[in-house]
Design goal:
With 368 residues, this protein is mainly beta. Helix content is 4%, strand content 45%. The strands form 8 sheets. A 5-stranded mixed β-sheet has the order 1-27-28-29-30, with no helix packed on it. A 5-stranded mixed β-sheet has the order 31-32-33-2-34, with no helix packed on it. A 4-stranded antiparallel β-sheet has the order 3-4-5-6, with no helix packed on it. The longest helix is centred in the N-terminal third of the chain and has 13 residues.
Length: 368
């Protein structure tokens, strides 16, 4: 028994973790971790304002930013704070951990680089607009958008500007990175592919309306929901639309970013529904109704879908059928997205509570 537990712990420590929004550069929203059944509350941490951004989990540490402008590092197993770093308000910009540094943007338009071990600031970079975009990384570069209408590429070590690309609207989304290309789905109603090295546009595809969601990329295909009440699938090789999904009875925007698991595309809608579509043709596989809009982006782990709703519930759904197998009542809207690694799942709520679920029992809560 002890040996099996030790093996499980060692395997968990070898996981790549959940270092950024949607788990990885292509923003697919899928975790390789094995989550226990059922999930149980391990610990909670109370901040002084809401969690609207999503946590990162790397090497046994949770990194989370709240609206009070505090980026906090907490021990994954106990919830005990390790350090806190003061920024401007952190709204939807989720921490990105890369090379021992945590990167996060704030509503003052500043991107912060913070030492992951000590919580000391490394450097800052100021833009001319709010940063709601979550940073992404490739090699030694950091990519993010700003409400000054630019996509930025910075040197990860120094914060020096490598290039910036100007769009025709605020860059709200998190850029997706795949095969040397940076993809942004923007407020200018275009899905743009930018060369990651040069910052030059490769191509642009019309979305038909603006979007607050980030595009998920896999196998030279992209998937994103829009404020035009549609979910779109694109063939990036042919640079063409694959399919369009529209709810036949209800017209509401999609703010949630999609998860791509197997042949399924899963995302939440402001129609209060979690939608699961066939990746190949966009036809509905199933839907699950909540009691409020679903802005949270889903996480898929081991055939299980985890997603928050503004009804205050964290849901676990079966990926194959859409049937609910578990729920947790946070008592406040959940617009942040789940993060999962090392057998644990973390999500923050609008009343400033960060929850960690895994095996075992609640260990208490703390105020930081």
């Amino acid at each position: 028994m002890i040996v099996s537990v030790l093996i499980s712990v060692l395997l968990a420590l070898l996981e790549p973790g959940w270092p950024m929004f949607r788990g990885g550069p292509a923003l697919q929203g899928v975790s390789d971790t094995q989550l226990p059944k059922p999930l149980k509350l391990r610990w909670s941490h109370q901040a002084k304002d809401a969690y609207e951004s999503s946590a990162a989990i790397v090497d046994g540490v949770v990194y989370a930013g709240s609206m009070d402008g505090i980026l906090t590092a907490l021990d994954l197993m106990t919830g005990k704070p390790r350090w806190a770093y003061k920024t401007g308000q952190i709204e939807e910009s989720s921490p990105c951990v890369h090379g021992g540094v945590v990167y996060v943007g704030d509503l003052d338009g500043v991107l912060h680089a913070v030492d992951a071990a000590t919580g000391k600031g490394r450097w800052t970079f100021k833009t001319a607009g709010e940063i709601k975009s979550s940073p992404n990384r490739a090699d030694n570069r950091i990519y993010f958008g700003s409400y000054d209408q630019n996509l930025y590429c910075l040197d990860a070590a120094t914060g020096a500007l490598v290039w910036k690309y100007e769009t025709q609207g605020p860059v709200h989304c998190t850029p997706a990175i795949d095969k040397g290309r940076v993809f942004i789905s923007g407020c200018d109603a275009n899905l743009r592919a930018i060369d990651a090295v040069t910052g030059k546009q490769i191509f642009a595809l019309e979305l038909g309306d603006y979007t607050g969601a980030s595009a998920a990329i896999r196998d030279d295909q992209a998937f994103v929901g829009t404020f035009g009440n549609e979910v779109l699938g694109f063939d990036l090789k042919k640079r063409a639309l694959l399919w369009t999904y529209k709810n036949p009875t209800r017209e509401f925007p999609y703010y949630s970013s999609a998860a791509l698991a197997g042949d399924r595309v899963v995302l939440g809608g402001r129609d209060k529904i979690v939608h699961c579509l066939n990746l190949r043709n966009g036809k509905e596989a199933w839907n699950f109704a909540t009691r409020a809009r679903v802005d949270s982006s889903p996480l898929v782990a081991g055939g299980r879908v985890f997603i928050g709703s503004s009804d205050g519930l964290l849901y676990e759904l079966d990926l194959a059928t859409g049937k609910k197998s578990w729920e947790f009542n946070a008592g406040a809207p959940l617009t942040a997205s789940p993060a999962a690694a090392q057998g644990m799942l973390v999500i923050g709520s609008q009343d400033g509570v960060l929850y960690c679920f895994g095996a075992g029992i609640q260990q208490g809560s703390g105020w930081f």
